[in-house]
């Protein structure tokens, strides 16, 4: 306060306050999962902040990302419900890799993972590989398990590939890791990527950090093949294109039908989050009532149709690139 004027807290103070609140939720959830006999691994968040941001730069995070074994996923969901969380809908552009959970009483958010985007191996294989080498970190007053350094490096590259060029935070995390982490760790991360069938996404993520990441790809002698789905995720964000590619290339007819229905008509909780995240001034008011929710679904269909031509072009370009490389 100066001359009676109250100044808002600095971005660093706000990031620290948010991190402390998220850490408290993480400790609460991890404790509940352990009480239910479930072993959770904490992804990103404080394990990245303490690892790569020791220079005092703010590394804000707004939710808890937890990975559990596939066999523990349903019990973990039950534990979250007992804590007051409710699902928002599946994430990862149609994958069933993770699900967002929100507690409306305090806006606490948890992303519960059974796999990672870009990993083609089964969730069981991924869990076995990542759970083999972990470290312990003090979070919210308790010790939690986090990924070992090669696992964290792998995840940073996959996360960058998942979100592409339009998201600054994953690229910033990756850039710091490429410059700060010993190359031997990246070689171990590369070998881990091979074991979980994620080399294409791993290499695509590293290539987004230009030029240091691209040089690292060359030194690690990573494959040059770039499947269309990996190209679409790493490019300018066109989520409809990712869904189109999955509809055209992956899974049996029933799985594709579920994917299409989920993209067109996601859960009400997801719709509220989707609409409130838009820059439309009327979005929040629109979602207060049942009629507003239905109008939001109609608007989402229009929103998808407007982007469909661009999505089709993006899919065709990605597939042409794969064919020319194969040729």
Structure report:
With 327 residues, the chain is α+β, with helices and mostly antiparallel strands. It has 15 helices and 7 strands. The longest helix has 37 residues, at 290-326. Helix 5 packs antiparallel against helix 6 (168-180). The protein has helices at residues 11-35, 46-52, 73-82, 123-130, 149-163, 168-180, 183-195, 199-207, 212-220, 228-234, 239-249, 253-264, 268-276, 283-286, 290-326, and strands spanning 41-43, 64-67, 86-90, 98-103, 108-113, 134-139, 142-147. The strands form 2 sheets. It has a 5-stranded mixed beta sheet.
Summarize it.
The chain has 327 residues and is an alpha+beta fold. It is 58% helix and 11% strand. Strand 3 (86-90) and strand 4 form a beta hairpin.
